[in-house]
Amino acid sequence: MNVPYGEDLLMLDDEQRAVQEAARRFAAEVLRPTGILLDRLPAEAVVAPDSPLWQVLTQASELGYTRLAVPAEFGGLGLSPLESYLVQEEFAWGSVGLSAVIFLSAITAGAAFLSGNSTLIEEFTMPFLEAKDGSVIGCWGLTEPDHGSDTLAVMRPELRVKVRGQVVARADGDHWVISGQKSAWVSNAPIATHAMLNVQLEPGAGLERGGVCVLPLDLPGVSRGPALEKHGIRSLPQGELFFDDVRIPLHNMIVGVEDYPEHVQRTLTAFNAGAACSAAGLARAAYESALAYTKERVQGGRPIFEHQSVRSRLFRMYSLVQATRSLTCHVSVRSSTMLEKGEAAPLQDSITSKVFCTRAALEVATLGVQLHGGAGMTKEYPAEMFLRDAASLTIADGENELLAQMGGALL
Ligand SMILES: Cc1cc2nc3c(=O)[nH]c(=O)nc-3n(C[C@H](O)[C@H](O)[C@H](O)COP(=O)(O)OP(=O)(O)OC[C@H]3O[C@@H](n4cnc5c(N)ncnc54)[C@H](O)[C@@H]3O)c2cc1C
Q1: How many angstroms separate the CA atoms of 305 and 138, rounded?
Q2: Is ligand 1 within 6 A of the CB of residue 391?
Q3: Residue range(s) of every CATH 2.40.110.10 domain in the chain
Q4: Confidence at residue 410, expressed as pLDDT on a 0 to 100 scale
Q5: Are 319 and 326 within 8 A, CB to CB?
Q6: Fewer CB within 10 A of the terminal residue: the chain, N end or C end?
Q7: Pairwise CA distance, residues 6 & 9, whole Å
Q8: Which atom of ligand 1 is nearest to the CA of 187?
Q9: Residue 92 in contact with ligand 1 by CB distance below 6 A
Q10: From CA 328, how far away is CA 356, in angstroms rounded?
Q11: Distance from Cα 172 to the centre of ligand 1, integer Å
Q12: For ligand 1, is residue 392 a contact (CB within 6 Å)?
């Protein structure tokens, strides 16, 4: 018997189930087919004016999915942390890449809002809330060509390395002047209208002497690289950002040197919890599609589902899916609840959730391909896409081995 998801494990009430069902419908009808279509296009076509990506953003925005936790009076869905988790799991089930496009679109507006600065809220948050067509899009530039895993060292003094950031902000009167380059991994960069940017504030000091600013990406001196061709999560456009003496008002620096390490830790805590949600949805997608295939493929005179070794592999996948959903739901709900109260959620739980769940998703997706046999190598089934996406999740938001090293240091 196929045990239903969600209501059994997560003990949902009627309202939560309605949120889950609506998200599941959008994921099945829009995200999954468009995600598969975009996965097969060249990166430049994914961001072209006629790309189906834009329609997805518009629809998601019209339905309020870009504004999950924003109160209803401001045009958001006003969802609870558990309901937000449910939407994230369903969306990642549909498409990990499109799910990231949708949720990241709010990042700059959200950062401006959390700064409490009314000028920034007016400039960055209000246009995002008012544009119900998904045309205001954020991104987060952290990684630099020479600094990927290095950025994690910001939070742990004993791991700090004296390396200079490649995007530097220097004060000049009542402005900051920004110069340098972010790596090609900045999600949404090819389509974003605004950015949240981690910058080096003290040239010559280590990466920990940084800050965070928000800026529109149509300022003089901003340019972008081409959309990145990559192996997995291809429906998520990524690319470089370049800054050539870009001037922003002083108040756009929303985090200064003193608060920077704590800010990086909070952001990593939130993003690791989010990556784990994606892994849970992806693992479920890979399991479900393998389960369906094993019931239709006949070998040895019967559906392969009836062979003992196939069932035992399906059970391994099912166990990982359910373990992943339980852990990530718990960590994500607690992390969001604490964040809403202005408290710092435990980094270690987020790292545990991210590392465990993305490894689990990779194992489930690998088993999924094996169970498809040769068909798992083809584009006829999404199994191979799930595997590529799962591999990418083990690197996004901190490469797993490095995160595990950090998690180990916190024991
Ligand atoms: C799908 C996806 C989305 C992303 N989105 C964004 C985004 O929106 N914004 C953004 O800024 N970045 C983003 N990134 C970048 C991501 O955060 C980095 O790729 C990640 O942090 C790893 O950095 P790196 O690629 O430079 O690898 P590196 O840091 O070069 O690591 C390469 C290898 O070396 C190992 N290594 C590195 N340092 C050490 C050490 N000190 N000790 C032992 N081993 C070490 C690592 O474990 C890894 O195996 C994204 C990446 C992906 C894949």
Answers
A1: 44
A2: no
A3: 140-258
A4: 86
A5: no
A6: N
A7: 5
A8: 8
A9: no
A10: 9
A11: 32
A12: yes
Sign of CA dihedral 206, 212, 213, 219: positive
**CA distances to 31, 102, 200, 218, 272 from 234, in Å:** 13, 14, 30, 25, 20
Test site for ligand 1: of 395, 401, 403, most ligand atoms within 8 A of the Cβ: 395
What are 182-191's pLDDT values in tens digits? 999 999 999 9
Atom 30 in ligand 1: residue holding the nearest Cα: 148
Ligand 1 centroid, distance to 231 Cα (angstroms): 15
Q: Using an 8 Å Cβ cutoff, are 234 and 390 in contact?
A: no
Nearest by Cα to 263 from 119, 155, 124: 155
- For 140-258, CATH gives 2.40.110.10
The reply to whether ligand 1 has any atom less than 6 angstroms from the CB of 88 is no
Atom of ligand 1 nearest to the CA of 139: 8
Which amino acid residue places its CA nearest to atom 20 of ligand 1?
398
Could you give the residue range(s) of every CATH 1.10.540.10 domain in the chain? Answer: 14-130
- pLDDT averaged per 10 residues in sequence order, the chain, 411 residues: 57 93 98 98 98 98 93 89 96 98 97 96 96 95 95 77 88 98 98 98 90 98 98 98 98 97 93 97 98 98 98 98 96 91 90 98 98 98 98 97 92 88
Q: For residue 147, which atom of ligand 1 is closest to its CA?
A: 26
Ligand 1 lined by 185 (C-beta under 6 Å): yes
**268 Cβ closer than 6 Å to some ligand 1 atom:** no
What number does the ligand 1 atom closest to the CA of 182 have? 11
Distance 150 CA to ligand 1 centre (A): 8
Task: Delimit the CATH 1.20.140.10 region(s) of the chain.
Answer: 261-409
- Give the pLDDT score at 1: 38
Which class would CATH give 261-409? mainly alpha
Measured between alpha carbons, how far is 244 from 179 in angstroms, rounded to an integer? Answer: 5
